[in-house]
Amino acid sequence: MRGDSAQVRYTATVALIVALGGFLMGFDASVISGVVSFIGPEFDLTPIQLGWSVASLTLTATLAMMAAGPLSDRLGRKPVLRIAAALFAVSALASALAPDFISLVAARMLGGFGVGAALIVAPMYIAEIAPADIRGRMVSFNQLNIVIGISAAFFSNYLILRLGSSDLAWAQALMFSEWNWRWMLGVEAIPAIIYFIALFEVPESPRWLVMHDRDDEALRIMERVSDSRQARAGLRAVHDSLGAEASAAKAGFRELLRPALRFVLAIGLSVAILQQITGINSVFFYAPMIFEQSGVGTDASFLQAVLVGLVNLVFTVLAILMIDRLGRRPLLVFGLTGIAVCMLLLAYGFGSASYRLNDQAVASLPETLERGSFAQLTDETYDSDVAFRQAVVDAVGLEAYEDHRSELTSAAISMNPTLILAGILGFVASFAISLGPVMWVLFSELFPNRVRGLAISFVGLVNSAVSFGVQLVFPWELETLGSSLTFLIYAVFALIGLAIVIRLVPETKGRSLEELQAELVKA
Q: CA spacing 20 to 30 A to 466: which of 7, 89, 212, 284?
């Protein structure tokens, strides 16, 4: 019994080390949320350039996802993870030191290769080393670490912002105030270096070793995670699996387009698009900017972003606990209903806001703004953020507006910011308990064995492409369409998605893959 405990501890330790890749992926993806408010004015970025600084990471991550699997088959799982850790560290430091917009985007794109590699190889490695009876729990470490990484990035950004405004001598010496966004990006190098070093304590994947005729090494590793009998049985199972894969003809993309697969492919594509087009990455990657639009100020907006991360973590854990009890379809219906309601709430909240600068509000603005410039705006009421922005830009210039966006909005806006906070947190909770985890579970269940890998890669690529587009255009939407119309569009997509789920998506809970294939894939 003691040996069993030691084996479980060893497996859990290895899985936790490898799952740090998930933490870094979540951190790297969402740390930019705290940066966008500062790099826009510093580098004089257009809305599309600002969107590109966020979305560029997703672009290279998608490319890395396609290459990481074949590369890990050639080099090994462990070397590819070490390369990913090095990319995270170099990207963090290069982003922090970026002298201009092009350098920042290039550094972010470099980190995207690490994100894509970690997303594919980390869960693959854990699944290959963990015994079957604890594999689900071990693999879930990676998904949980992604969510923890997102939360850690929000908290880290807030902490750096607070240190920048503190009187602490060491914080002033490290220039947390002047270099706040650079510290936000650069701090990721610390866990990345820890990850790189810790990976030296991790063995190579037994499956990869067997693939390369290194059975003795594979058996020694498998005996560390299970008893000798199970290890030898596992080794035979790997050989049988590899033999079956070698004898089976590889499925081509044309096979996905067969009439028999149209139904399951339509479901997969619908869910893949729906997960991103309802705006989740707009919230994760621009959370402080959204909260600033409600007039709460910079510090409060970063604190509220921390709440976004915590809610995401809590409801992701709840989804993991409930997905096999309640089923996939009920969670999707509940979550999409919540997403639609919360997006309509946000559209109403921003749509009912008004903007008015009276003499007292103008007097409260930073001294760097010329008071006389606001004479024509004083006591004028604007019914939308777009109209108010344009009036201020006409009066003081675009650069002055971008430098003091938060202060100007806070001074002029009349709305209920609690409504916005409730809408955002409700949206994140609804997503985290439904579309977030359920999509990947559905993908693993819908497609037949023969085309599963190809099909998941294809719908995953579509999912990433939609994510890239959403991130890219969000700043442009806010500036051109306004906050209210932007969130209304997301609500409409959620309602359309709800109708599609009710009409098309089957319940897969408790049903074998063979049963699902017989029902959904028509001969």
A: 89
Residue pair 90/98 in contact (Cβ under 8 Å)? The answer is no
Residue 327: both structure tokens together: 């089923």
What is the predicted pLDDT for the residue at 306?
87
Kindly state the average pLDDT of the residues 317-338.
87
- Residue span(s) of the chain under CATH 1.20.1250.20 come to 1-202, 253-353+415-523
Amino acid at 17: I
Q: Name the strand (E) or helix (H) holding 35.
A: none
pLDDT in tens, 134-170: 766 677 777 788 889 999 999 999 999 889 888 888 8
- Written as six digits, the tokens of 336 are 């999409």
pLDDT of residue 458: 81
CB-based contact 114:28 (threshold 8 Å): yes
Q: Any idea which fold 253-353+415-523 has?
A: Growth Hormone; Chain: A; (1.20.1250)
Residue 508 to residue 332: CA distance in whole angstroms: 12
Token duo for residue 261: 């697969």
CATH topology of domain 205-248: GTP Cyclohydrolase I; Chain A, domain 1 (1.10.286)
State the Cα–Cα distance between residues 310 and 326, nearest whole angstrom.
23
Where are the CATH 1.10.286 domain residues in the chain?
205-248
The class level of CATH for 1-202 reads mainly alpha
- What pLDDT is recorded for position 2? 41
The one-letter amino acid at 92: A
Q: Sign of dihedral through CA atoms 356, 357, 359, 365?
A: positive
CA pair distance 85, 104, nearest whole angstrom: 19
Neighbour tally for 243: CB within 10 Å: 10
For the record, the structure tokens of 292 come out as 């600033």
Query: Per-residue pLDDT tens for 420-431?
Result: 999 999 999 999
Distance CA 311, CA 151 (A): 9
Q: Return all residues near 184 (Cβ < 8 A) that are at least 6 apart.
A: 31, 34, 35, 156, 157, 160
Who's near 192: CB < 8 A, 6+ residues apart?
24, 85, 86, 88, 89, 92
Burial of 401 (0-12, 13-18, 19+ CB in 10 A): buried
pLDDT value at position 147? 87
The residues pairing with 355 across neighbouring beta strands, listed in sequence order, are: 382, 413
